[in-house]
Amino acid sequence: MTMDFEKPIEEIIRKRYSCRTYVNEKLDEKSIEKINEFLQLKEKGPFDKNAKFILVDTKKKEEKLKIGTYGLISGARYFIVGIVNKKSVNFTDFGYLMEKVILKATELNYGTVWLGRSFNTNTFSNFVHLDDNEIIPAISPIGNIARNKRNLDKIISWGIKARKRKAWSELFFDNQFTKPLTAEKSAPYALALELLRLAPSARNNQPWRIVKVNELFHFYLKVQSRYIIEVFESMRFIDIGIAMCHFELTAKENQLPGKWSIENPQLVTQPKNCKYIATWTNK
Ligand SMILES: Cc1cc2nc3c(=O)[nH]c(=O)nc-3n(C[C@H](O)[C@H](O)[C@H](O)COP(=O)(O)O)c2cc1C
Description:
The protein is of the alpha+beta class. The chain has two domains: about 10-155, NADH Oxidase, CATH 3.40.109; about 170-280, putative nitroreductase (tm1586), domain 2 (NADH Oxidase). The chain is built from ten helices and ten strands. The strands form two sheets. Strands 1, 2, 3, 4 and 5 form a five-stranded antiparallel beta sheet that branches. Flavin mononucleotide binds near residues 114, 138, 201 and 204.
């Protein structure tokens, strides 16, 4: 089963933000059923790896949970827990797949926020059964958004599209890393790139860099150092998977079919701290 969206993807992506205040209430059976339905995501990511997503009701262990999320999140009772096998994990695929889940939850008007590493994995392994080699790379609360002042402000900021994101010229390039890509030059992919730009990323780092060469879009990940330190950098692979998800969903919805492939163009201007990940090709 692939995940289908009923609302326009642009509307869903623009609506999503990191919600940190929830109404702590029980969801009705119908809602729970609906969430469980879309968590049965059977598709694989661009690198052919899958992931599991489980809905957890933490009600009875609330105290422990506060420790688990370091008090950053309030009122969250239900969580989507992402699970992968650490022996075969591909964090880009994990990010891609979990973002589809997040966007589906957004479509259904639930609040979500990606949480990676700021929660205590042990807390959550009390709620889900993990097989040997299974790990939890990230979780997200899922629930009704509390209509407090803070969230109202957020809702208003959706309206004016006030998002703290890097400028196009820092993210998207034309042929080489030295020349910024304009929206005009990126047509008909301008919306796909713009909605990629609105993707969530750990610490809002926005580590995605994209170079358009002829009709191909080459995706790069900006890492902190040339040496990928597994613990920190796995989050960045999740980030690029999320960005690929936004780009692909928007392209496909706008009748721009294509697929992911590995076609490193070996650009001479590629910075040392940018790692080639994949290419979107419409061939
Ligand atoms: C992989 C990943 C991990 C994240 N981890 C946390 C986290 O631990 N705590 C938190 O409060 N937000 C976390 N976030 C949310 C980001 O801070 C947020 O997406 C970013 O600041 C952009 O804001 P927005 O989602 O409202 O557009 C994470 C996001 C991603 C993609």
